[in-house]
Design brief:
Alpha-Beta Plaits; Aminopeptidase; 7-stranded mixed sheet
Length: about 240
């Protein structure tokens, strides 16, 4: 059994998460900014379907990408050099999260980006915590990703691509931006072959929790942390 959270309930220790299904920690509660910030600070995130209550997860192991370990394939590096896509930051957050929700996933039946998730993360964007990177071709949105910035960690949530490598170019741009700002860690939540091919790897949950203690010292949204000009990847 897992605990049912009331709106004012605290999260249980992440060590209490179930082994099967891996990482299920609690159910219920709300998706207020305060709740979400507390969750991310402790290595917890919401993930559920429309027919479920809010479910909170903290899997072990945890998939992460250390920005210094990011790998760019030859084909992706060539695409970046050609400038196939223009990458913008925080110019189309609503469109990105909507596209992520509508993108079919072979490993999922339906979407976990529910209406309540969309509304909650739009609010987090308004408050300066949630950010999007968008790939554009001829002023058409063809790919992107979004996630949460807190301290010196970026918590990746989802990505989509309508053209080849569009989301990968966004991820490469994100890594470059984070490296410029001294941010060493991207949380990828769950292991996928797609992320592993670019350098992400699983680590133990306790190690991930230690990283969060080291890298997040405030509940405030980082100022100028992801927004603003980004050096071109080819420079």
């Amino acid at each position: 059994m897992i605990p049912w959270l009331q709106d004012d309930s605290s999260f249980p220790p992440i060590e209490n998460a179930l082994t099967h299904p891996n990482g299920l920690l609690a159910a219920g509660g709300d998706l207020s900014p305060q709740r979400l910030i507390t969750a991310y600070r402790h290595g917890i995130y919401p993930w559920y379907s429309n027919d479920q209550p809010v479910l909170w997860w903290s899997p072990d192991p945890r998939m992460v990408l250390y920005t210094e370990e990011f790998r760019t394939s030859r084909s992706l590096a060539k695409r970046i050099r050609r400038g196939d896509y223009e990458v913008r930051i925080d110019t189309a957050f609503d469109e990105v999260i909507a596209a992520c929700a509508q993108t079919p996933r072979s490993e999922q039946n339906g979407t976990w980006i529910t209406r309540s998730i969309v509304d909650a993360y739009r609010r987090m964007h308004e408050l300066g915590y949630a950010h999007s990177l968008e790939a554009w071709r001829d002023d058409e949105l063809v790919g992107g990703l979004y996630g949460i910035a807190l301290g010196r960690v970026f918590f990746g949530e989802s990505m989509f691509a309508r053209e080849s490598d569009a989301s990968k170019v966004c991820l490469a741009t994100l890594v470059s931006a984070l490296q410029q700002r001294g941010v060493p860690l991207i949380d990828c939540q769950q292991e996928t072959q797609h992320l592993a091919s670019m350098g992400a790897r699983p680590i133990r949950r306790r190690e991930f929790a230690s990283h969060l203690i080291e890298l997040i010292h405030s509940n405030a949204a980082p100022k100028g942390w992801i927004a603003g000009p980004v050096r071109r990847l080819s420079e």
